[in-house]
Amino acid sequence: MSAVISPNTGVNTALRYLLLVVFALIFVFPILFMVVSSFKPAQQLLRDTASIAAFLPVGDLSFDNYAAAFRRAPVALFIFNSVVITVVTVAGALFICSMAAFSFAFLEFKGKEVVLAVLIATLIVPFETIAIPMLMLVNNLPWIGAGGLQFGWLNTYHVQIVPFLADALTIFLFVQYFRDLPRELIEAARLDGATWFQVYTRVIVPISGPVFATAAILKFLAMYNQYLWPLLVTQSEQYRPVMVGLQYFFQLNIAWGEVMAYLSIITLPVLIFYLVLQRAFISSIASTGIKG
Amino acid sequence: MKKLATLAGILAISTAPAWAQTELSLWYHGAGNPTEGEILGTVISDFNASQSDWMVKLEQFPQGAYNDTIVAAAVAGNLPDIIDVDGPNMPNWAWAGYLAPLQLSEGTLDGFLPGTIGTWKDQVYSVGLWDAAVAMFARKSVLEENGIRIPTLDQPWTGDEFNAALETLKATGEFEFPLDLSMDDRGEWYPYAFSPFLQSFGGDIMDRTTYTTAEGALNGDAAIAWGEWWQSLFTNQYAPGTSQTAADHATGFIDGRYALQWNGVWNALPALEAFGDDLLFLPAPDFGNGPKIGAASWQFGVSATSQHQDGASAFIEFATQDKYVAAFSNGLGLIPATASAAELTENYKPGGPLAVFYDLSKAQGTLRPATPGYVVAALEFIKLAADIANGADVADTLDAATDAIDADIQRNNNYGF
User: Is the pTM of this model over 0.90?
Assistant: First the structure.
């Protein structure tokens, strides 16, 4: 078999790369605009939007917007809050949702399909429609903390975590993935005397890297971008996350340079998380690719 | 041991007033504006130190999220004692049971600009320490070069004069547009800045004699005349339409691409910096029923669920002192609520660079309809103003908005009127 590349293949490859470059630019340009603009004074930033200069680091560049952003809002506190809330929720949700999905995929119990159908149906209910009833609920729930038994969850971290530890989309993702796994693996483990929990931890979890990575990325983005719920339940600045913090920058005269600086800063944790999980995602695919 | 006990006793006595103070929570929309927080912090610490009954504690929220937070808190049943409220929203919050009437000493509000006093059903529910106003930003040199009369508070442009000025400025070919209305800001700016034009034509967002209908006010002959004029601003290319960007608005006048700009006092200082003495702040044109501009900004009120409404009112009364009114004006650049406070400010004292705004607010300031229904009516006005600017049929659009506002009023049993 020779390795000669036909002219047609070369043209196709070039076209494919051209298309990929165009798509890459479409996705990169907004981020480039955000980062570049964060170094420009407000008036220059606005004037540059009329030309390609909007994407170029030209003109009077400085870190002034970053310094001003830190003066305007407790940026570090907001990032800390968001990271704590997001990481704890993602970790908890991966465990709880995958366990729930495991039972839907592999265990037999009465009404399983009905329960799953109802669960999936909740995907079409917008969060906004249940936000107020949820608010009234959490405002009356008990919680045992450092100060003993208290009623009302407002102005806490757990009010931003607990309601999102289980969600239909994540469970559905796991169920779909688990159902495609070879049942022989589970049957073999059961024959060897493994309990259901051992099957989950020692057989299913190790070969489910891709779905864990995918669910983690989706859940991370959903939690990190939370706005409405934290807005309703955090009346104290101490517990506010980054997206509520963004509102600090929208005054009568909007300082767009500071907005871009703040957005650049709060985008970093998302990029870091994605890059870390991207590796896990790829290696999971590589390691599980042999299972078929 | 005896010394320790004595020391503890002295400490207990010296701190006794602080222990006796009852805490009052105050929610404010100024998060993200350190200057505003600092000034309010001074007022609070002065108040707390001035008496032994009350201790005000501040919690700040970003402006864009503030109203939603208040509504959520009302649902959850944990409104604070003192709330700040945007003037036109006050009647809605009073009607919804969020606010209680203020308990102020007689004469507290003497001399306050009308736009700073929030009244509903003959009771004062809120008071502002400042007001905001809109003016026509213009350059003296541009008007003089083109032979356009410079209007005054006593002799504003008539509608015809204003239209002729726009045509003259357009004919020069020097400007991208003769007028900038900030059409990009499709929020409360629309009813605040544009409904006074409608009122100057003789129409209104709703019938203020009953507050139970918009019929006749929003779709009568005067309103249709306003709608046709409004639409002509865009069909004649006098002003950029709804596709205008925030960047165009922010730079257009200062860069000389727009000749006139209908703008708020909060943008006056940057414009002054750019043009100095050449800059003019002109009154609104008179379209037949007097020149009018919007009024009412953020104000302080007392929560209806507060257990300490007397203390909350006492704080608000304390904050109305001239020195605090002046401090807010100096810090925020907005119009001080009283003439005596204006004299203490940098910008609004007689001869100050923004003093004209105080006069404008006093002479032309017109409150948006003081009714709970305003919240919905404002949304309808935003929609109709944008639709008409985009070429919709004027009469049909005004009729549709009138029907929508009336339907909302009926659904809510006339909002108690």
Answer: no
Contacting residues of A for B246, CB less than 8 Å apart: 46, 254, 256
Separation of alpha carbons B185 and B97, rounded Å: 30
**Mean pLDDT, rounded, for B41-70:** 95
Q: Comparing C-alpha atoms, which of B367, B338, B343 is closest to residue B107?
A: B338
Task: Please tell me the predicted confidence (pLDDT) of residue B5.
Answer: 52
Are residues B296 and B128 in contact, defined by beta-carbon separation less than 8 angstroms? yes
pLDDT of A6:
67
The ipTM value here is 0.84
Do residue B32 and residue A73 have CB atoms under 8 angstroms apart? yes
A75-106 helix and A256-288 helix, angle to the nearest 10 degrees: 30
Question: How do strand B130-131 and strand B335-336 relate by DSSP bridges?
Answer: antiparallel
pLDDT score for A288: 44
A interface test, pick of B251, B269, B272, B273 with most A CB neighbours within 10 Å: B251
> In this structure, are residues B126 and B87 in contact, taking their beta carbons and an 8 Å threshold?
yes
Domain ranges of chain B: 17-132+296-366, 134-292+373-416
**Residues B179/B163, Cβ–Cβ less than 8 Å:** no
- Would you tell me how many other CB atoms lie within 10 Å of the CB of residue B113? 23
Domains in chain A (CATH in brackets) are: 73-249 (1.10.3720.10)
Please report which residue ranges of A38-63 form alpha helices under DSSP H: 42-48
CB distance A248–B77 less than 8 Å? no
CATH architecture of B134-292+373-416: 3-Layer(aba) Sandwich (3.40)
What average pLDDT does chain B have?
Answer: 94
Selecting from A46, A231, A245 the residue whose C-beta is nearest the C-beta of B250 gives A46
- Residue A252 is predicted with a pLDDT of 77
Q: Label residue B323 by pLDDT band (50, 70, 90).
A: very high
Q: What is the CATH number of domain B17-132+296-366?
A: 3.40.190.10
The yes-or-no verdict on residue B86 having pLDDT over 90 is yes
Which uninterrupted H or E stretch holds B58?
Answer: strand B54-60
Instruction: Give the count of alpha carbons within 13 A of B56, CB side only.
Output: 32
Amino acid at B161: E
C-alpha to C-alpha distance for B238 and B178, rounded to whole angstroms: 6
Q: Look at B76 and A135 and tell me if their CB atoms are within 8 Å.
A: yes
Chain A residues with CB under 8 Å of B73 CB are 235
Q: Which portions of chain A are predicted below pLDDT 50?
A: 1-2, 287-292
pLDDT at B373 over 90: yes
- Burial class of residue A203 (count of CB atoms within 10 Å of its CB; 0-12, 13-18, 19+): middle
Q: Are A216 and A224 in contact (CB under 8 A)?
A: no
Query: Could you give the percent of chain B with pLDDT greater than 70?
Result: 95
Assigned token pair, B277: 């003495």
> Are B252 and B258 in contact, with CB atoms under 8 Å apart?
yes
Distance CA A30, CA A28 (A): 6
CA B61, CA B134: separation in Å to the nearest integer?
Answer: 26
**Three-state secondary-structure class, residue B203:** coil
Interchain CB contact of A248 with B (< 8 Å): yes
Q: Which residue of B has its CA nearest to A236?
A: B59
Q: For B170-184, how does the pLDDT look when each residue is reduced to its tens digit (9 = 90+)?
A: 999 999 999 999 999
